[in-house]
Each structure stands twice: as structure tokens, then as C-alpha cells.
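Researcher: Re-running this chain for the archive, since the previous output was lost when a drive failed. Same request as before.
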Amino acid sequence: MDYKKIIESDLNEILKDKAEDLTCQAARYSLLSGGKRLRPMMMYMTYDMFSGDQDPVFDDVRYYAATLEMIHTYSLIHDDLPCMDNDDLRRGNPTCHKKFGEGIATLAGDLLLNTAMERLMAIALDKPCYLFASYRMAKLAGINGMIGGQSIDITSENKQIPPDDLYELQEKKTGALIECAVLTPYYLLNKTDRSSFEDDENISLLRQFAAHVGLAFQIKDDILDVTSDPKTLGKSCGKDERDNKSTFVTLLGMDNANARLGSEIDKAHGILDILKGKGYNTTDYSDLVDYLKIRGN
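Model: Regenerated C-alpha cells:
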């Protein structure tokens, strides 16, 4: 099944009925600008691992996958603003504020986040067994997850932070939404509630896997910021040095950063081996983990 095509089709329906509004136009401009769609793709990988495309939960996975990509896109719009990372290029196109202005871009990010929260509440109202999945996605987008990581990121500019703070920063800023992507389909398939959260071995394994993937993704991002170019990445390079940020390259050095990247990839494969031993199909995730090491090369 062509999941990328499904993702783009679902995203194209977001805010389509309000397309005459300039804020909606800006939100859709960023939402539909392409990209790897890594997070929604991972949701389908988890779904395929534990179920199959005939399961009635499939349409709900689609719904949550599009919602997660809305949250991710809002974070990119705000990240690119002059008051934050101050970037002009995203996914090979002018950033939202360069095309629509800072005010409309700010509103566009707000709109995507607010609409995503509406969607999470709406499906939980319709299907109360999904309340936990909606709650976890909302929580991991907030101060306990992505926003918490962004807060550490901003307050860490122009200073060298301890390695533990850098790991916490990236675990939240990058890893939180990746955890959402990996775990949400499992919650939907198993009608998970709070009481079963810590007792399910598969949830524990998936959380460990998501942590290793998130860290590998960010380490590779830090490496590419030094070694790649805007044409290849579709976004600006050299920003970390420009903003005097602590990264895995600046704290560990390039050789050690590459070694840590390899270690996280090996650990991710180790978790997949356990899941494979339990009878689950891990092929797609295995390919993804291998891709994390070579992406942008």
C-alpha cells in the first residue's frame, strides 16, 4: 500500500473548507510542502507490525497520523521564526514567515496545533477507548515533550550545556513526537488505557526503540548541519554554529558523534530483533533504521 500517497491525500483535506482565509492558506502552504513524512510513516509501520491493512482500526491510524503531522508542521513554522531559529528555507521552499509574514506565520502554527487538539478531542469523544492515545499525543507535544525540549534549546543558546541536558533536550524536542508515532497505533489496536501502560512488555520495547531512533535522528541532524548543504537537505546548514548551540558534534566531536550514532542504530536493531523473535514483522522499521545512518549523504 502506498502510505505516502495516503498521507498526502489526508493532509490535503486539512482546513480545505477554509482555504480563502490567509492564515489557513499559510498553514496549508507549510503542511503540504512535502518532506519525508517520517512520523506518519512510522505510525503505519507500527500498525503493520502489529496488525494488517484489513483491521478496522486502519482508518483511525490514518486520522492520528495526519494529526501528528499537523503538530510537527506547526513546530517547524514556529522554529523557523526570527525570534527562534530565524530560518529562510524549509523543505526546499521559503519558510512560512518569509512567504506570509511573521504575524500570519505565527497564527498558522497556532492554527495547526489548535486544530490538531480539536481532532484529538473529537475522536476521543466519538470513541472513548482512544482517550489515552489522544492524551499521550497532547502531552508529548507539550512541556513534558516537544515544547519542553524547545524551551531548553532556546535557553541554551550561547552556552555549552552538560551532556545530560543535551540528551534531555533532544529526548523531548525530537524524541517525543517520534514516541507518538511509534506507540499511538499500538494504543489504538489494543484500546490501551492508563492502567495497562506500564505493564505491557511491547509498550516498553516500543518506547525504548523510539528513544534510540529519536536520538539517532538528532545526532545525524547535528552531523548534517556541519557536513551537508542546503540543496541536499532542503533547509539551511551551519545554523548550530551560527547560533552557538551545543550539539552532539560540538560536545562529542565528529568522530564520537558518528560512533554514538552507530551505537543508537545498533540498539534500535536490537529492540527490533526482540520484537521479531516474538513473531512481529519488523522489516520496514529495520530498513528505516538503516536509512537513518545514510540519510543526507
